[in-house]
Amino acid sequence: MTLSLPELPYAYDALEPHISKQTLELHHDKHHRAYVEKTVELIKGTRHEKASLEDIIRMTAREGGPLFNNAAQAWNHGFFWQCLAPKAGGKPVAAVAKAIDRSFGGYDAFRKAFSEAAVSQFGSGWAWLVLDGDDLKVTKTADADTPLAHGQAPLLTVDVWEHAYYLDYQNRRPDYVSVFLDHLVNWKFVNANLAAAQPKKVSAA
Asked: What would the pLDDT profile of 144-165 be if each residue is shown by its tens digit?
């Protein structure tokens, strides 16, 4: 398949005042674009040339290296944009709310675990809500690493590389994570990911 930079699912100023237009322009048009273009350069003329990002990640996860790092970052960013929405955030609804209650004992416990993962990630990386088997789990990955490389189904992520928040929050990562949860999480997207990741139940004939 042909890899290209996906467009943002909203206008550059749609997430203000929580994430500025300047941050989104820099983050999407410079950082994300660079990962995509480097991935395309690295797969040219190789067995990966027509593979999807997901397949490239899975095929290169064990050895790591430049192709894995760039492909994983390209995928992580494309996923992250979908995790954000204007006038969103707050407590989850529908199936995700029930799954969070079941796995964490309630939203407050989930929020604490997710915030701690995001804030405590040393250096650059990501915090995730994933489906691992039948349970929801909070995890974190360093640099370009992604749950796709570990057999987990990503449901939600927050980018804690400094370029994701420094123009707006400087070194106040906890404030950025709090705003993400309170005002930006696209729970519709998370619910869609959960539905897609769960095995389909077949009714008896």
From this structure: 999 999 999 999 999 999 999 9
Name the architecture of domain 94-197: 3-Layer(bab) Sandwich (3.55)
- Kindly report the CA angle at 69 between 136 and 167, in degrees rounded to 5? 80
Question: Can you give the residue ranges of every domain in the chain?
Answer: 21-83, 94-197
Two tokens at 158?
């927050």
Q: List all residues 6 or more positions away from 144 whose beta carbon is below 8 Å from its beta carbon.
A: 68, 69, 70, 72, 73, 76
Helices 94-104 and 107-120, interaxial angle, to 10°? 80
